[in-house]
Structures are given as structure tokens and as C-alpha cells.
Amino acid sequence: MTDQSIEVPSDDPAIIIARTFEAPRALMFKLFTDPYHLVRFWGPEGSTYPVCEMDVRPGGEWRLTMRFADGSEYPTNSVYLEITPPERIVYRDAPLDRSQWQDSLAPAQMVTTIQFEDVGGKTRIVATVRANSIDARDMAVKMGFGQMVMASYARLETYLTTL
Hints:
Layout: E1 4-7, E2 14-21, H1 25-33, H2 35-38, E3 48-54, E4 61-67, E5 73-84, E6 88-93, E7 110-119, E8 122-131, H3 134-142, H4 145-160
Antiparallel strand pairs: 1-2, 2-8, 3-4, 4-5, 5-6, 6-7, 7-8
């Protein structure tokens, strides 16, 4: 049985997604911070990534374009707020157009915190995705955000067997 869960607190605009993997924490942290590895498990089955650029440092940018089988693409842009190897990654969404940034970023729609917890040689990943409102969080839930993350985790488990 896989140790995994998705929680949606009634009074907090967060989605909390957790799963334990049979791999050491340092390796799991590397998989989430190296584009070579990340594109091999991120996103739903069948998605590909023609763009995955990661400047993994506070203030660094993460640009990702997810391409689906029908050819549609979903570009995203994030900024890292905190990098604490091998324990924690915090990033937030950011405008795709850098020229709009100027001195500060527009308010975040979502902030994601990924915790890598060592549990006796295994790693428990707890991703807390915080939206700017409960309505925005509920919309993400309705669109299947949690299931998409779980699909990534299933792909990650398969990818781990190839390393």
C-alpha cells in the first residue's frame, strides 16, 4: 500500500499532498531541482516538456512548458523563494512576461512549499500549495490539481526504478 494523501482544509486555501518514496532525501531533492530528471516524471502521463529551465536559487526563475498529446501547451513561470537542500523548496507563480516584473512581482496566485522529510532512509514529500483564496483553491481542486500531482508522483516512483 502506498503512503499518500491529499488534504483540503476547510479554513485554509491550501492543498496538501503527501507521499512517501523508497529513496534517500538527497536524491529526491536532486530530482526536483535538476531539469534532466524533473522532465522525466513531472505532470500527467503522456505530457512532455519542450522548455524546462531552472535557476535554483532564491530569486531564480523556473520556466516550464508542458505539452500534451494533442499539441496544446501550458507554459508556466515561477520564482524560487527558498532553497534549503535537501529539506525544502518554496516557489511562487510569476508573470510569464518578464518586462512586467520591474522592481517587484505581481501578487502570487499560488505559493508551493515542498518539504522533503527523512523517514528512515525513505523520503516523505509534503507539497503544500497555497492559493490566494479558498475559491481559487477550490477551482484548482475542481480542475484535478491534486490528481495531477499524484500522477506525477506515480511517474516519479516508476522513474526511481530506472536510476
